[in-house]
TrEMBL record:
InterPro entries, alphabetized: 2Fe-2S-bd (IPR002888), 2Fe-2S-bd_dom_sf (IPR036884), 2Fe-2S_ferredoxin-like_sf (IPR036010), 2Fe-2S_ferredoxin-type (IPR001041), 2Fe2S_fd_BS (IPR006058), Aldehyde_Oxdr_Iron-Sulfur (IPR052914), Beta-grasp_dom_sf (IPR012675)
One Pfam family recorded for the sequence: Fer2_2
Species whose genome carries this gene: Metarhizobium album
Keywords: 2Fe-2S, Iron, Iron-sulfur, Metal-binding, Oxidoreductase
A molecular function (GO) term: oxidoreductase activity, acting on the aldehyde or oxo group of donors
Protein name: (2Fe-2S)-binding protein
Domain of life: Bacteria
Domain 2Fe-2S ferredoxin-type positions: 3-80
PROSITE patterns found in the cross-reference section: 2FE2S_FER_1, 2FE2S_FER_2
Length: 154
């Protein structure tokens, strides 16, 4: 049984038909809408590579059923830059070398954007690490990531 839902994705209204009501938001984004900036790491809520914003809050899209999000506003990494202008968090990640291989970077950036929007990031690097702990970086670029979160708030 198919199901239609309406979403706003990166400021664009979309109506999508789900042939399988069990499809996750992550698979909807990547496999159906070809927004492949959002990455699949563990597919079980452990790595944060799939982080996107739903109604402004950061979530693991691999744990969220698309069918439960009718009417929601989704922001992915593709929706941050405006034209050629990078989002301040994207620019800060570049300025601070907040990545190495880059696979976790979209999730890290989306988590940082959500954290800063929550107003909880603050200026304590240890606290930022704790609040970003749902996003793993196998390369260990945590120092640059933390510096980028600090830089983006200036
Ligand atoms: Fe979703 Fe790892 S892919 S948390």
């Amino acid at each position: 049984m198919s199901l239609s839902i309406s979403l706003t994705i990166n400021r664009q209204s979309r109506t999508v038909t789900l042939d399988d009501p069990r499809v996750t938001l992550l698979d909807l984004l990547r496999e159906h809408l070809y927004l492949t900036g959002t990455k699949k790491g563990c597919d079980r809520g452990q790595c944060g590579a799939c982080t996107v914003l739903v109604d402004g809050r950061r979530i693991n899209s691999c744990l969220s059923l698309a069918a439960s999000l009718d009417g929601a506003e989704i922001t992915t990494i593709e929706g941050l830059a405006v034209g050629e202008a990078l989002h301040p968090v994207q620019a800060a990640f570049i300025a601070c070398d907040g990545f190495q291989c880059g696979y976790c970077t979209p999730g890290q950036i989306m988590s940082a954007v959500g954290l800063i929007a929550e107003g909880r990031a603050g200026s304590d690097p240890e606290r930022i690490r704790e609040l970003m702990s749902g996003n793993l970086c196998r390369c260990g670029a945590y120092q640059g990531i933390t510096e980028a979160v600090l830089e983006a708030q200036k």
